[in-house]
Structure formats: C-alpha cells, structure tokens
Amino acid sequence: MSIASPAAPLSPADDQVVDTPEQAEGAVRTRRRRADLLVAATALVLAVWVTGALWSDPAHRASGVNSGDQAFFEWLLSYGAYALTHGADPLFTHLLNVPDGVNLAVNTSISVYAFAFAPLTILAGPALTFLVILTLNLAGTAYAWYWLFSRHLGANRIGAAVGGLFCGFAPAMISHANAHLNWTAQWVIPLIIARCLLLVRRDRPVRDGALLGLLIAVCFSIAAEALFFTALALGVFTLVWVLFRRDEVKALLRPVLIGLGSGALVAGALLAYPLWLHFAGPQRYHGTGFDPRIHNEDLAAYAAWPERSLAGAVGLNTDLAANPTEENSFFGLPLLLLVIIGLVVLWRRTDRAHRANLLGLGVTAGVFLVLSLGPELRWLGQLTGIPMPEALIGGLPVFNAALPSRLALIVAPVFGLVLAWLATALSRTDGGSMKVSLPGPRWAWVAGLTVALLPLVPTPLLARERAPVPDFFASGQWREYVADGGTVVPVPITNDLLPDGQRWQAAALADAAGAGEGVFRLPAGFFLGPGGPNGTGRIGPIPRPTQTLLETVAKTGAAPAVTDADRAALREDLRYWNASIVVLGDDVHGAHWPTYQPALKSVMTDLLGPPQRVADVWLWKVPTA
C-alpha cells in the first residue's frame, strides 16, 4: 500500500493505489489462512515424526511400551465397523467375555472414531486406522488449541502457534501417544471451550448450546474421563471469574442458562442409552479398582523432564511416573519457573478484564496440580504419609473412576495459554488483545522461552515388532471349524498382557464388516468390567483355572505336570465358554514380557492330546462330549 504525501495529493493519473477497507480485510484473511495452513502443516509433520517408528510398517509394528492397549483400541475400531454394518449394539457385545459379555459404555468405546473410520478399517485393517487416528489426534490437538488461542483468547498468530504446538505435543500428550487414542484426542476440548465462550459473547444461545451438546456427546464417546476433567476445570475457572467480576454476571446469566439448557437437551438425547449403560447397565462397575496411591502424580515430576524428549534423549529424564504412558506433568523446571514468572508479570501489566482470566487460570492450574497428587503426597518416588485434598473426594461417585495423576492433564493447556500470551507480547506482529510490554530486554524472554521449550521437543515413540495375524484368521479359514456362535479359545487366554486373541478377532471383525458375515466369540479379553474389590472394576473377568494355568506357563516357560484335575477344569471351562476350537499361534505376543510358545504347546498337548497343523496355527478340536 502506498501512502500519498500531503504536499502531492493523488490525481486520477497517478499509478499509486490505496487499499480499500474490503481489500485490507481480504489481506488480513489471506495472512490468517497462510498462518493457519503453516501451523496445520507443522503440527502434521511433528505428529508423523513422533509416530514415525509405527509408520515404517503399521501392520507389523506396535507400541514399544503399550502394545496391549494398542490391540484393545484396534479391536474397538474393528468392532465399531462390524456393529455399523451389522446393526449390532455398538456399546454392548457378547463377542468378548463369553458368556457374560462386555459393557463398552464403561470402557472407552470410541464409537465416533469407529464409525467415521469404518471404511478405512474395512479396506486396510484396524492397525492402519489406529495409526491414522493417533497421528491426526496429535496434529489436530495442536491445531485446535492454536485456533482457540488465536480466535477466542487474545493471542496473535505467532503466540497462538507457540501455545498450540506446546499443547499438542506436551509431555503428557507424547506419553499418552503410547497407544491411547482417547487421551490424545484432546482436539475436542478447545472446541467445547470455544462454544462455552460464545454463549457469553453473542446472542445465539440455543444454537451454540445445541452445538455444545453435540460436542459433549462426541467427547463422551471418545474420552469420557477427559470430558469430566474439562467440566471440573471450567467449573473452577468460572467460579473464580464470577467472584472477580460479580457486576457482569447478571447480564450473562440468561443466555448462559438458555445455552446450557439447549446443550443438556441435545447431549441428553444422544447420551441417554450410553449413560444408562454406564450407570445402570449389565457388566457395569463403580470405580476402577486402581490404587490411587500408585496412580498419583509425584510432586517432583512437575519439575522433571519426560523420557521421550530431547532432555530425555541425553539422559536428563527421571523415572517418576507409574508407567511410561502416565507422564502427565514432567514440564521441566525452566518451564515451570517461566510460567510462574509470566503469570505474575502479565498480572501486573494488564487490565482488570484480563486479570480475571489470569486469576482463573492460576487457580485452576493450582487446584488440578494439588488434586493430581492423589490422596497421599509422593516425593521423588516415595510416599510421604502426608494426606492430600484428593483423599476427601476420591471415593465419591465418578471421582472414583478417575486416576488422580491424570488430573495434571488440565495443567498443560493453562501453561500453553500463558506461553501464547507471552509470545504474543514478544512478537512484533499485530493481532491479539493481550497487548502488554514485558519488562527487561526482549532477548532475555526469547532465551527463556527457548530454554524452557527446547528440552521438551518430542522424540519418536518406541516401537516393537509384532507377528502378523495368522493366515488362519486373516483368510477366514477359521469358519470351517467354528459353528455359528461358537467360541475360539486362544492359547494363552486373551488379556491385557497377552493380546493375541483380541488381535485375531479384530482382523475377523474387520473382514466380516466388509463381507456381511458373522464372527467368532472369545473367552475373557482385555476390557474393564466388574469383579474388583468392594464392587470396583478390574481388567478382564475373574480368571478361570485354565486361564491362570496358561498365563503362568506363558510368563515363566515352566511346563508343570498336568493332572486329571487340570483336565477336568479345562473341560468345565470349555463348556462354560461354548468352545469350538482351541488355537495356538507360532508366535505368542507378550505386551510386557517374553513368552514361551513351546511350553504352551507342550501343556496343551498334555491337556487335550496332539494338535492338528492347520494353515499357520496349531489347532485342537473341542470334544463334543
């Protein structure tokens, strides 16, 4: 755009052009689109980088630390496709855990994903679908937070990119990328927050509330625990904001109540059956059964660095998580200090309106940090005996189904927004309502951001080889041996540590979804159901004698002398499961330890006699009498 000199006004003959307001607005939209595309592309490249070890061979590679959960989510994707094409109940099935079945509403059904990606599952199999969703989850979460920060929360494009990419690839996201399709699907959370903000910013509460209800239903399907945490966090933030700006609340009350009512109607209609199954349906449970004193966050973990990061790559990580998938904080001391200093500086240099937001964010982060520590404070890996506030609420309904350490997941987006505002204040581009000047030299703040964020740059996830699904199942040859409604008994019996049987069934489900045919059933399986202490849940059913025997053999490699009592227990178990055949593959996959296939074959031969070799499996037909 040219600027005319006052001494030489433009004439019609001049070549200079002054932008009209419409042209200026169009230029702004073009710059925004370019920034959006750049952030989206960066997020996708980073997501592929993180999941690259799996992309090298999706069908034969699995999470290096959590292949059991990966098998479970692949099964959910195949079952969802099967339910969609066969008109089956997507939230309850008798294909697992014969004869009792599995309530998927109290598990993580991911029905929305299973339905949306059903064509890909049918065409290419659940392993590829799993990897596509995992990659898009990471990229989509980063972009969704960028979008929220730039469109609704006062950050300019540069600041929003910094904050959004941090949220999408925060230590907790990388940790849960070890096979958790639910916890990595945090792209829906910014959409829910944006819809809540619109309830108070524009006069369309019925429409915005209805869309909020739809998003709540989607989130419930993918990650009900994350939805619960989000509702709690928004409640804490809103309470602080209302107390700080009481004079504005009355004018906002009517549209908010109308919007929430509209959302409740939509969500209630969509979730009526899932909620009934969850709280009153068969095979439900109350509480996870996991010990909150094990699955609580170590206070020192907030200043530690994560394993899959540049800091971890040079050995600066610490072993303070319950397992590699639960590094829910691990921000590193530099970032922790930067965020605290940033909050103080922003508070001192901004207006009252922004101070309400800063106070709400600070209190929300603080509340969830403290609650994530569980019922008893843990420091440097040791329980201290110091009681914590979570002990007061951890036994309440719904709260007892959440792992305390995961409450730390709420802290990461708060940190991301503070980073977005700091980067906005430092950048020299226009945009964003958080217009403050930071004290001290600009280079010092840039250096602080670099020192805080560079060590957290993620490194690729670990992966391991896994045997392909036997051709006996992949080709459908199993149909020659299993009657309609019959059960295939895998050796060993499927659970979270020995996922082969569920992988075999997932392949059969995907094939049956495309061909319109039936599929075999499985005893036990990897799922959450009743049977834990005091009415809580447990992983899988209470094991029957044969399952316990075979798991011990798989884990130890020791083949015990088989007794008549063992044979009688096996016959009873096979009747209980309505078994048609018993199958042992050539390669038994153990999710966390080596397995011993020859010992399993020896024990099963002692139990049922010599097996048949059919295609690429060892098979025993179950006697009819």
From TrEMBL:
Family matches, as InterPro entries: DUF6311 (IPR046278)
Transmembrane region(s): 37-55, 104-123, 130-148, 154-174, 212-244, 256-276, 329-347, 356-373, 406-423, 443-463
Keywords: Membrane, Transferase, Transmembrane, Transmembrane helix
Keyword Transmembrane attributed: yes
Biased composition annotated in UniProt, kind: Low complexity: 1-13
One MF annotation (Gene Ontology) recorded for this entry: transferase activity
Keyword Ligase on entry: no
Domain DUF6311: start-end pairs: 42-410
Residue segments, region Disordered: 1-26
Origin superkingdom: Bacteria
Pfam families: DUF6311
Protein's name according to its UniProt entry: Glycosyl transferase
